[in-house]
Amino acid sequence: MDFSFTKDEELFRDTVKEFCQKNIAPVWVEIDEKREIPMDLYKKMGQQGLFAIPVKAEYGGPGGTMVLACIATEEIAYADPSVAVAVYSLLCNGWPMLLQAYGTEEAKKEILPHVAKGEAFFGIATTEPHTGSDLASHKLIATKDGNGWIFNGDKLYISGVGETSQLPWGGGWWLTARTGTMEEGHRALTAYALLGKKDGKVLEGYEPTVLDEIGRGGLTTGGFTLKNYKLDDKYRCGDVNRGFYLTMEGFNLARTVVAAACIGAARWGADQAIDWFKQRKAFGKYIASFEGVSFKFAELYIKLQAAKHFVYQSGWLADKVYLEKDPAYKPVDLNVPASMAKIYGPEIATDIFRETMKWYGAYAYSKESPLYRALLGVFSYEIGAEGAQNILRYIIARDTIGFEYVRW
Amino acid sequence: MNKNIITFSEDLDFLPELIGGAQEVASKLGGEVLAAVIGSEIEEEAKRISKYGVKVLAVDNANLEEFDAGRSGEVLEQLTMNYNPELIVLGSTMRGRDIAASLAAKLGTGCVTEVFKIDFEPEMTFYRSIYATAIAREVIASSPKVIAVKPKTWAKPETRGEGEIEEVSVKVEPSRIVQVSVKPKEAVAEKIEDAEVAIVGGKGVERKEDLEMLRQLAAAWGGKVGVSRPLAADYKWMPEWVGMSGVAIKPKLYVGVGVSGQPQHIVGIRDSKIVVAINKDPKAPLFEVADYGIVGDLYQSLPSLIEKSKK
Amino acid sequence: MPDIVVCVKQSIDIEQLKFDPSTRSPILAGTPKKVGQMDGRAVEEALRIKERMGGSVIALTIGGSEAEDVMRRAYAMGVDEGYMVTGPELSDLDTNVKIKVLAAVMKKLPYFDLVLCGAASSDVSSWQVGPGLAELLGVPVITSAKKLDIEGEEVVAECDLEKGTYTLKAEMPAVITITLEINEPRIPSLMAVLGASRKKAKTLTLEEIGMAEAKSLTKVCDISMPEVKRKKVIFDGSEAEKLEEATSKLIEALRREGVME
After folding, report:
1. pTM of the model
2. Which pLDDT value is given to residue B311?
3. Overall average pLDDT of the C78-93 stretch
4. Looking at chain B, which residue has its C-alpha nearest residue C234?
5. C191 part of contact set with chain A, CB < 8 Å
6. What are the chain C neighbours of A10 within 8 Å (beta carbons)?
């Protein structure tokens, strides 16, 4: 068992750190305050090879791995603990990896090169106003129409709506729509690479709105209504009515990089705590000499390391399944590791920020301190973005105890 | 090998310091001090140097008109062959270091540059900076020893009569370096090395115009203004900077304004009597080596300090 | 189409170097090393010349186990070939011997027009490698270049010396040493990092270059951090209300110290 990163991975981490220290760390607070990521940053990150990392060169990607995507996301989040930039990049790493696995050649060749260059966004659109966790109860409908499909319905709480409008090429999402009856539930969903804006033009029937959120201000969240929106069949991903299963695989990939973002931000939080311990005294002693403080830090440190292991184990497995296509590993093998990573990552991140803010005391409550920005950023994942924590617990219970004994 | 010492600097204003220092070394260890004056038409220069009571080895050759570190090294090598010194002391200027390294490579001997102190027990030991802020003590096992000594390590001696001038002819090819042009450094109106109080700006100072605020503080406190390396070398707000490879200062009061305090800067201000840091980043390394500091915005702190100093 | 050899090595990252408070000596073990600031700029400058004029860039390093990392970074930046001399004995060799090792390797290389290296390493800073190497190669040297151009058979460099900025010219082959202000080195992209892993530097032993018997000519007896006892009295001026108090206290303190009227 080799727990070390390869030389490539170490060099890549160093270069990402250098890039982030130069281009992201100096401006992350401003990004959060102004609630926007500068346009030229997307281009620079694209040139650096930080998007669509697991996508092969034939589709315009850097030809990297999920592990490398986790490294990039972790370091970007360390430089931007509000995680806005990190979330943009993790979505544009995880979901393109799924599109590469199950999209048509045409769709891949059309969309992925622009995502890699930082000209187009590609994320996930499953949530609707009435359902997040209960994916099977989608109401957005896709009806077959000649060589394509017509979509009607809404998606809500979707990241990247604003970015899709602003980026030069545009972008879209891996989206699930109902292609059968409500009674058929999850067996009647089909997956698509649905574009909001393509080649610089907003598509007809796509009506986006942006929401106002409490954190992660640099990245937009919003929704869109599709009104008789037309999409060619070449954008369908996988077989009709098989969408649910493919999307679940995609969530395993996305949750891995989500956790990577959380541990990056958490690591930054831990470093802020250590900096504080080296400066602050109370009652004549350094505050970490009080075991109530130091022991708490030690516990948080343990959990942070555990979360890191979950991230990279899940990333490693993803590469085995999707890139190496090693027959010893199947997509479902990712269910538990990815769920563990996505439960632990956000929770340790919010824990670290909450405790660190307590150690800083009143200063952390003022806006002079940027800690609150990081807390609100990672909190979105504890609230349930990219997978409600309890759904992930259900997945772990189901896969370890057995579906028969946990079904409701 | 005798105990003779050959001294040399391409900068004849610096050479007397090296002569003085070598004379101190020779007084401890015995041996004669020789000073090499190398160039084209150097009669006057040789006479000037001989007034420090040393024997001058005057190497006058038209091929030595233009500077070429390798050629100077070759000349010194020939002098070394002829006079067999144990120690060769060069000046640790930018060109002096080049000549020292060149000479040492030619002689196949060891060389220590940037020397600022010499000890003699148990053997001749040379002190030089390392890791920016630390001090290394080094010995040279081979012979002769080649060293390059920093300016102001030794005091300039008084002149004391006329030493002998020996004209030495050498074989040397012409310089391979052509000096296309020289743009002299802007005369620094007030040299920061001489300041009792130094107000030094760092990257926290956003615009060149803001140095005016530092000047006002300097005026109020009887001091002079300097800058850290990036502000001089990259932004060109001033011709020189304070720090390693720049100017080292020893004021009674140093105030770093928006200076983070990297080791390369710290080594230039280390001998200040009192160090003050003003920076809005509480983690700036300068606070670690400061006597007093303000964690705060320099754009508010300086006006406040200037105001209060008027009373 | 100049053929350029760049000498590059890692230095101790002095910003992360800690000192043992009791012995005052540096804690070198475990301190990260990285390519020296001037060395990195030498590689960058060589690559920029190649981008303008064609030709080739060879990276040359000597060192211990970190030599491979240096080569990997150099390949990721875009050099064509790499040579490394490695071995545990190398970490014990002093600067003067390392210069001899570099010269010995250069004899195994094909023809070169320019040799670039950092004017000084970021840790030891002896400023010797460029001029020493030039002497052993029998070529001219220009040090501390902040701008570099090739015009025909000549190299033109702009250097900030004590008295001013000198523009100097020499016929190639020549050694030029590079200073901080010349450029900002590129950060290799992921594509470049992955491309670099397919490349392998040529390894040479001291024996192969006839330097097996090499011994250091100088020796560092000890390294210590001078005693600096500073008071570290820091006033909090981070908020408007506190600032006035902080500046008053500072002025009081400086008056007490006798450095201010």
Report:
1. 0.90
2. 63
3. 90
4. B293
5. yes
6. 69
